[in-house]
Amino acid sequence: MIHIAIVSHGHEELLISSQLGGLAQAGAQMQIWVKDNCPSASLRSYCEQVGVHYTDTCPGLGFGANNNFLFQLVRQSAGYAADDLFVIMNPDIAITPERIAELEQRMQRDHALSATLNLFKDHAGTISDGNIRIFPDLLSPLRVPLVRSLTSVYDKSKLPESCEIDWCSGAFLAMRAAHFEQLGGFDDDYFMYFEDVDLCYRSFLLTGHGVRYYPDLHAVHFGAHRNRSLASPHARWFLTSFTRFIFRKYCVYPRRPHTLKSL
Q: How far apart are CA 214 and CA 181, in angstroms?
């Protein structure tokens, strides 16, 4: 079974108009789980209409905590199996059920515990989304003037057909359910930002493998960057989460050579 976790932060209009990113009629092979972080009667009604799981329990949680909440519902559901696929997906992703089914088949073939696909910002596939990135380090702040971010993106044009990368955005991350559970899911200490980095890093420490990236499997991410002016809460969350990850990477987590194994 494939379980798709979607958290809405006031995205009810987008989710309804997009038919849950194109997955409302995914069929029996996929179960959609929606957590409404800002409870909406219209989204509840829509989910009931199309027959997907909906909850608005515990509103106001952070990104990781919301997805952990959904995973616990998945884990307690009838028919749950350790080899199920758990997919974290933003509400502003557009994809087809067939694309996700193909991703599942590829992951089984490659024995991949975590994977992502190639996100674009437009349906034409001309504007790449920086969803695959390199783990930040102590020198990352010095690179900000050059890369305009605390994390560096991969040049997708230089990557092979299928490969392992450090980490991928939580906008779309697929992970074998047993592996997600073994990792303890996302770390709730991250309210927002870098919880995906932390999860992928702990996965790498545990297995020696990175996230499997499939460049020929496409989806659209209509992401809007939040205001990160120093006065905004998003800027504070971002900087606090970056500092937390760097501290844990160098002072808490076990050290190992950063060399990804090949599958």
A: 23
231 pLDDT tier (thresholds 50, 70, 90): low
Distance CA(119)–CA(128), nearest Å, equals 7
Measured between alpha carbons, how far is 155 from 213 in angstroms, rounded to an integer?
A: 13
CA–CA separation, 172 and 165 (whole Å): 14
Task: Band the pLDDT of 261: cuts 50, 70, 90.
Answer: low
Q: What is the pLDDT of residues 33-84, one digit of tens each?
A: 999 999 999 999 999 999 999 999 999 899 999 999 999 999 999 889 999 9
Whether the predicted model's global pTM rises above the 0.85 cut: yes
2 phi and psi, to 5 degrees?
Answer: -110, 125
Exposure of 190 by Cβ count < 10 A (0-12 exposed, 13-18 middle, 19+ buried)? buried
Please write down the long-range contacts of 98-106, taking CB distance under 8 Å and 24 or more positions apart.
99/217, 99/218, 99/219, 100/2, 100/4, 100/23, 100/26, 100/30, 100/174, 101/2, 101/29, 101/30, 102/217, 103/174, 103/214, 103/217, 104/2, 104/174, 106/162, 106/212, 106/214, 106/217
Measured in whole angstroms, how far is the alpha carbon of residue 36 from the centre of its chain? 17
Handedness of CA 47, 52, 56, 60 (dihedral sign): negative
Q: How confident is the model at residue 263 (pLDDT cuts 50, 70, 90)?
A: very low
Please tell me the distance from the alpha carbon of residue 87 to that of residue 198, in angstroms, as a whole number.
17
